[in-house]
Amino acid sequence: MRSLPLVFWLAAVIVSFFLNLFGLMRLFPLFLTMPLLFGTILCTLWTLNNRNRFKGFQKRMW
Q: How far apart are CA 58 and CA 3, in angstroms?
């Protein structure tokens, strides 16, 4: 269940990459596909980096 966001973002990167290829062929506007590709790569890397983050020691309540 934890790998579901990762699979989603990887699929989004693949889709946005192909949209960017269509943008380079001038089938889609390039000023829309470039930020879309950048955003999906950024969110994918953020998801990969944020999975195993140390959240600190748990404070005990006496």
A: 25
Tokens 């140390």 label which residue? Answer: 54
Its pTM stands at 0.77
Q: 57 to each of 30, 49, 50, 54, how far by Cα in Å?
A: 47, 20, 17, 9
Residue that the structure tokens 């973002």 belong to: 9
Quick one: tokens of 59? 């404070």
Q: What is the DSSP letter of 58?
A: P
pLDDT in tens, 25-60: 999 999 999 999 999 999 999 988 887 777 778 777
The tokens describing 39, both together, are 């955003």
Amino acid letter, residue 10: L
